[in-house]
């Protein structure tokens, strides 16, 4: 049996009526799955693939993938297997034109070629015809199985090209093909609400990529974290889909069960970056038996092979290295190796038609408006189902409003209430923005989903940033109104409707800026702990220099000119102060009987204004202590707008630059 299966074998496999998935009527779903049938990509081949990195300790170059060749024909499923550190994940990422995991160490160089139908393919075309399923199931937990497939489809296909009825038919077909009909309306699962099982999530991950009509599907450890039964089911579904629709499936796999191992058509065995076998799974035992390594009876062949090429735990290191080198040398001189070299050369020499992405079955991709609308819809569904997104924050803000309203309850318009009024203004606005850190986990879920979908060519950072900003507006305004309705009147701030709505507006701006900061920090450092710490630190800094802790008139020059003027809390606090004090008058404190104050009055005023002789304090006198002057609200609104947009633009740049 040769390395590449005959074209006739796989051309007829599309019409098979004996599906691996029992109980599925292939004819009933033929129309629904017509978009999956591959008629353009005949094979994918790679030659001389080498990935070299600098060793972090010795600084010497080290090949983590060393001169690897391979070819997979349409309708075949390939297992890339090897012990940990063998280079299989790096090779898979190289083949899929994705950033290499080892690149973070610096000094990474690559060589070799990947050909489609024997020809080089542009990056844009390659992204159109391939999809990559991550090792971790990056799914939005608050969506149902059906909704996950639907949104994936809509992000990949323009609604102008494909009618809604056909989209639904394709989703239903995949639900049946992957055995997910019974879970179609079940949630994927959130930290608060349990969802579908791990095996079902894996199938949803695969189905969500298949629905976008790839011709080549890459999977990184599709059975990782699953028991042998669930792993077998996943690979069984992959095999059936590949054969029925003439697709190419390439999967890295760690240690499959015997039943799962036998489902693969081809095996690529790696160790220390070098190839030890490439060919049909049915021929691997024969190859190693010829080398004197017979697979024991009742032993999993995959487990035996991995033990054979793994020298990490060898007691006699030198002997193990020599034995491994001998096996690799034997492979290079084997008939299978020569067949592989000939098959790769033949595919390149034969060439073929350029891949026509117009036959992908989905039609044109949605533009910016279409992608943004779909993401906005998806975010809306997530926002009202997942309490982590906004529900927890609503509860936090409600509790904070009760606390502020009852601690500073019904303050009088008297001078002893002026400091408490100022404290309440600062505390309410500052802690409302500080609590925006609760948005970190919700944004990180969107971020990791974006990374996966962008690498698969579905949309870019512009659509994500715009949709995320728009979905937050009604919720943040609702939070501002909720907090204000409770706390504003309990505290007894300026008791007019105009002052109330000005307060709500500035609190709303405060939350918009705070959430924009969260989006930037969490995009820059997509780790919950790190982003949480950085956002908390930044908010602590803004509180320190916004003008409350140290009045702007005496604030340190460094902090004043480096941080104060672009501190969004500064503009919120300043305008809330102006809103509260500019048109309000406060009574002065009375002196003990027998004592007299200025101009013989019986009162003492903390702030001297033109109303002191009437034992009153004009609110502007309080503002003068901070250097605040009314009449600059329009300018401050413009500055706040720039700060909000600036943080969003900074997040956009981060997302754009990250691969």
Automatic annotation (TrEMBL):
Membrane topology value: Multi-pass membrane protein
Organism: Neurospora crassa (strain ATCC 24698 / 74-OR23-1A / CBS 708.71 / DSM 1257 / FGSC 987)
Lineage of producing organism: Eukaryota, Fungi, Dikarya, Ascomycota, Pezizomycotina
Subcellular location per the Swiss-Prot or TrEMBL entry: Membrane
Protein name, as recorded: ABC transporter
Alphabetical list of Pfam families matching this protein: ABC2_membrane (PF01061), ABC2_membrane_7 (PF19055), ABC_tran (PF00005)
GO CC terms, sorted: membrane
Region ranges (Disordered): 1-20
Main location: membrane
């Amino acid at each position: 049996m040769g390395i590449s299966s005959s074209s006739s074998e796989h051309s007829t496999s599309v019409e098979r009526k004996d599906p691996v998935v029992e109980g599925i009527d292939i004819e009933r779903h033929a129309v629904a799955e017509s978009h999956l049938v591959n008629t353009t990509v005949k094979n994918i081949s790679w030659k001389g693939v080498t990935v070299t990195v600098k060793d972090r300790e010795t600084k010497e170059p080290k090949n983590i993938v060393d001169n690897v060749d391979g070819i997979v024909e349409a309708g075949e499923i390939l297992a890339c297997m090897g012990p940990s550190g063998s280079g299989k994940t790096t090779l898979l990422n190289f083949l899929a034109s994705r950033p290499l995991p080892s690149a973070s160490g610096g000094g990474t160089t690559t060589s070799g070629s990947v050909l489609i139908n024997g020809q080089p393919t542009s990056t844009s075309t390659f992204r159109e015809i391939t999809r990559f399923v991550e090792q971790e199931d990056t799914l939005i937990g608050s969506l149902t199985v059906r909704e996950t497939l639907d949104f994936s489809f809509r992000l990949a296909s323009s609604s102008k090209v494909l009618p809604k009825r056909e989209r639904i038919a394709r989703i239903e077909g995949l639900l049946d093909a992957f055995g997910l009909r019974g879970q179609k309306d079940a949630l994927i699962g959130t930290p608060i609400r349990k969802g579908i099982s791990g095996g079902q999530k894996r199938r949803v991950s695969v189905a969500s990529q298949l629905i976008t009509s790839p011709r080549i599907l890459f999977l990184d450890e599709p059975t990782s974290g699953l028991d042998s039964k669930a792993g077998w089911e996943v690979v069984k579904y992959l095999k059936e889909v590949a054969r029925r629709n003439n697709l190419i499936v390439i999967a890295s796999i760690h240690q499959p069960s015997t039943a799962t191992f036998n489902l693969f058509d081809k095996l690529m065995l790696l160790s220390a970056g070098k190839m030890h076998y490439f060919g049909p799974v049915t021929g691997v035992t024969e190859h190693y038996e010829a080398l004197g390594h017979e697979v024991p009876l009742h032993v999993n062949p995959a487990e035996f092979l991995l033990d054979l090429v793994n020298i990490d735990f060898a007691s006699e290191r030198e002997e193990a290295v020599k034995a491994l080198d001998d096996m690799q040398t034997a492979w290079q001189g084997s008939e299978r190796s020569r067949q592989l070299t000939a098959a790769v050369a033949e595919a390149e020499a034969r060439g073929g038609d350029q891949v026509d992405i117009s036959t992908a079955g989905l039609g044109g991709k949605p533009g910016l408006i279409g992608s943004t609308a779909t993401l906005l819809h998806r975010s809306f569904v997530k926002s009202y189902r997942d309490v982590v997104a906004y529900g927890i924050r609503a509860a936090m803000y409600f509790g904070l409003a009760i606390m502020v309203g009852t601690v500073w309850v019904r303050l009088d318009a008297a001078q002893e209430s002026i400091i408490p009024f100022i404290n309440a203004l600062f505390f309410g606005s500052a802690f409302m923005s500080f609590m925006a850190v609760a948005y970190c986990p919700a944004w990180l879920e969107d971020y990791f989903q974006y990374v996966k979908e962008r690498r698969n060519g579905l949309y870019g950072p512009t659509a994500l940033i715009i949709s995320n900003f728009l979905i937050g507006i009604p919720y943040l305004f609702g939070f501002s109104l909720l907090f204000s309705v409770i706390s504003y009147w309990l505290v007894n701030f300026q008791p007019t409707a105009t002052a109330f709505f000005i307060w709500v507006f500035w609190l709303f701006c405060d939350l918009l800026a705070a959430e924009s900061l969260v989006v930037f920090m969490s995009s820059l450092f997509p780790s919950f702990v790190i982003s949480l710490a950085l956002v908390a630190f930044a908010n602590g800094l803004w509180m320190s220099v916004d003008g409350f802790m140290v009045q702007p008139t005496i604030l340190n020059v460094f902090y004043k000119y480096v941080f104060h003027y672009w501190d969004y809390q500064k503009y919120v606090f300043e305008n809330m102060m102006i809103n509260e004090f500019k048109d309000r008058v406060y009574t002065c404190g009375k002196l003990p009987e027998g004592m007299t104050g200025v101009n013989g009055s019986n009162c003492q005023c903390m702030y001297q204004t033109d109303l002191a002789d009437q034992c009153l304090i004009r609110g502007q006198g309080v503002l003068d202590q901070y250097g605040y002057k009314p009449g600059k609200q329009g300018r401050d609104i413009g500055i706040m707008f720039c700060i909000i947009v600036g943080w969003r633009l900074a997040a956009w740049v981060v997302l754009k630059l990250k691969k």
